[in-house]
Design goal:
2 copies of one chain form a homodimer. Chain A is α/β, with parallel strands linked by helices. Chain A has 11 helices and 14 strands. Chain A has 2 domains: about 5-40 and about 275-380, Alpha-Beta Complex (Aspartate Aminotransferase, domain 1); about 55-270, Aspartate Aminotransferase, domain 2. Chain A has helices spanning about 15-20, 60-75, 90-100, 115-125, 140-150, 170-185, 245-255, 260-270, 270-300, 330-335, 370-389, and strands spanning about 30, 85, 105-110, 130-135, 140, 155-160, 190, 215-220, 235-240, 305, 315-320, 335-340, 340, 355-360. The first copy, chain A, has an 8-stranded mixed sheet, sandwiched between helices. A 4-stranded antiparallel sheet of chain A has the order 10-11-14-13, with no helix packed on it. Chain A starts with 13 loop residues before the first helix and ends with a helix. Chains A and B meet through helix 3, helix 4, helix 7 and helix 8 of A and helix 3, helix 4, helix 7 and helix 8 of B. Chains A, B: Belongs to the class-I pyridoxal-phosphate-dependent aminotransferase family. Chains A, B: One of its GO terms (biological process) is alpha-amino acid metabolic process. Chains A, B: This is PLP-dependent aminotransferase family protein.
Chain lengths: ~400, ~400
């Protein structure tokens, strides 16, 4: 049996295991990032042309590419439909970017913490992951400059809006400074924005990609958080120097994205119906976030520090008394509570103990206090045991 | 700009360019492998549960996995649903297999000729592609043994049933002997069967995967040739030692396959409606194949040799007077005729001049003679010019 070298870096996915365990209906799960079932819109199929059953272009449906380009231009990204590549979910952007850039040992810059599946994909391809701490306004700019000065990273992978897992939204000033640094050092930007539309306090900020003057860039998004994840329709928009390579890599990966999902996405994007759906979605999630904040204040004030996220789906808690939160999982699951340990969101988990990611959209409101109370109890007991040891 | 080393191996796809040029309605295209539009079945959506809009399991829908496993068992492959991985089209099986096995320089065995996109995907990942000539009954067994004796290939990628592009169907005897060789040398089999159900003369043969006693295997198929390619639903079935790795690679690639297409596939597989659809499909394609054979006899008897394919979508012609058929493309396109040159289907194109792949399902019957007549004329002129030079 001779597998490739990369298979030795193929980790069992902690998320997979936790989510599988959290499937039991009695489990109160703060672990996943699933949209609320109640808010999945009903879809209509009337009018879909029969040709959507045929093979389609690798680039994606022309009309969908136009809609996505128009949406990006409205966000300040100067682009044409010819730069839009429709993907089988935005996870595929990570796979294509890894193929485009990463050989064994290739250096890349990520936020610490960052999106777990991005970290795993880049590491699978052999990347050397360099971290920049995330502060309340965005990445630590001095640390970012230092990484650019001391290394030659192939790209910087950033999630500037309602970052997963930290919930951080880069300020306007920081966005401009990050863009300037990328331009200064000629580092390609990969900007991942799945949560942009899930904004609850009226705050918005234009993408970093639109602020670049020289650096190459890939901007990626999805309809999974606003419409239906089951469609598996995401997209990337790339600077013209990168697009032809990404297109060929997409074709080699799966020929093209399924056309049923693309057609559905086309029925929504840019419509009044979509705007109304987004407004309802924001109201729903805002209410859940606020309820979570109240419950956290009651059960976690003495245990952890956190900021109220202005968007996205997660609270990010930092324990006042650090403990490897992976060690809490078994006890929490025994209490029918699931959560996501924070350590795996860092390139160096052992050096970053004591954070938890808690989703606020899934647990039913009437079980919220019970769930958080049990989780707090698990933490208290573990910390007491640690102190006694 | 520092791309990965693999990007230097990212070829512009000749197929892409030919197919794009063949889009013009006046072009008579023998180039692609698209199902006939007239035979795409109408699909119904009534009864699809709302949860199909939510994230789904990376493995695929449980009920679909059961159906696919049952179908494979009926073909002699002893397997369980737990070994089935639903894919975003069977092209994805090539991507996942490449990730699982191929480092730069990894040796793999393929048929010569073989599926162009497989060759490109394996080469993209850095494979050293070793070829075994395809004879009328399957691969040259002595050559296959020699490759296994002289090299240590990570796998053998084979298309035993209505091979693309050659149309060859391995005989029963050859299937058994290939299985025995794979077992003897412990070489993993990747068996690709997109065309199995497109059989026109009543011939069938059980997969090689079901004949193995020791070697690991991946068997891959799709609903693209029998239902709707736009669904982007394919699958692989793997021996239990390989499955967990392939599952994790699938998750890293795109989380899971779109659920709309999976649900559609579930409505058809194993039903009487599907069997009736397949029967109509075979009648339709058989008629087109027979018409093509008649037209070829008229226009190509003096130019080329070929066998009538018993299934699939292609004739494979070998010119009596070899010429690099890539050089014929421009002249053919100027005559509004598209075809697929044979050279790119070989790991060593320059050493294998003079073959053409002609699809028989796409060109309308009333234009068939005109298209083949023009193509024959282009070949005659090129050969005359070559002889005069």
């Amino acid at each position: 049996m001779a597998f490739s070298e990369r298979v030795t870096r193929l980790k069992s996915s902690l998320i997979r295991e936790i989510l599988a365990a959290a499937q039991r209906p009695e489990v109160m799960s703060f672990a996943g990032g699933l949209p609320a079932e109640a808010m999945l819109p009903a879809i209509e199929w009337a009018g879909m042309p029969a040709c959507m059953g045929q093979y389609g272009p690798s680039e994606g449906e022309p009309a969908l590419r136009e809609l996505l380009a128009a949406e990006a231009r409205a966000q300040g990204i100067a682009c044409q439909a010819s730069q839009v590549l429709v993907l089988s979910g935005s996870q595929q952007a990570l796979d294509l970017a890894a193929k485009l850039y990463i050989d064994t040992g290739t250096e890349v810059v990520l936020e610490g913490p960052t999106y777990l599946a991005a970290l795993q994909t880049f590491q699978l391809f052999g990347a050397q992951c360099l971290s920049v701490p995330v502060t309340r306004d965005g990445p630590d700019l001095a640390a970012l400059r230092r990484q650019f000065e001391q290394h030659a990273p192939a790209f910087a992978y950033l999630i500037p809006t309602f970052q997963n897992p930290s919930g951080v939204r880069y300020s306007e000033a920081v966005r401009g400074q990050v863009a300037a640094l990328l331009d200064e050092f000629g580092v390609t930007l990969i900007e991942d924005e799945p949560y942009r539309e899930l904004t609850y306090d009226g705050v918005m900020a234009a993408p970093i990609a639109g602020r670049l003057r020289q650096a190459s860039w890939i901007y990626t998004g999805t309809v999974s958080k606003t419409l239906l994840p089951g469609l598996r329709v995401g997209y990337l928009i790339a600077s013209p120097d990168l697009f032809p390579h990404l297109l060929r890599l997409k074709q080699a990966a799966d020929l093209h994205t399924n056309r049923l999902g693309q057609w559905q996405a086309m029925q929504w994007l840019g419509t009044q119906q979509y705007r109304e759906h987004l407004a309802r979605l924001r109201d729903f999630y805002r209410e859940r976030r606020d309820a979570m904040q109240q419950a956290l204040l009651q059960h976690f004030t003495d245990l952890a520090d956190w900021h109220v996220p202005q968007g996205g789906l997660f609270f990010w808690l930092t324990l006042k008394q650090p403990i490897d939160t992976r060690t809490l999982l078994a006890a929490a699951m025994a209490q029918d509570v699931a959560f996501m340990p924070g350590e795996p969101f860092f390139a160096d988990p052992a050096a970053n103990p004591g954070c938890l990611r808690l989703n606020f959209s899934h647990v039913a409101p009437h079980r919220l206090h019970e769930g958080l109370s049990r989780l707090a109890q698990v933490i208290r007991q573990a910390q007491a045991a640690q102190a006694a040891a």
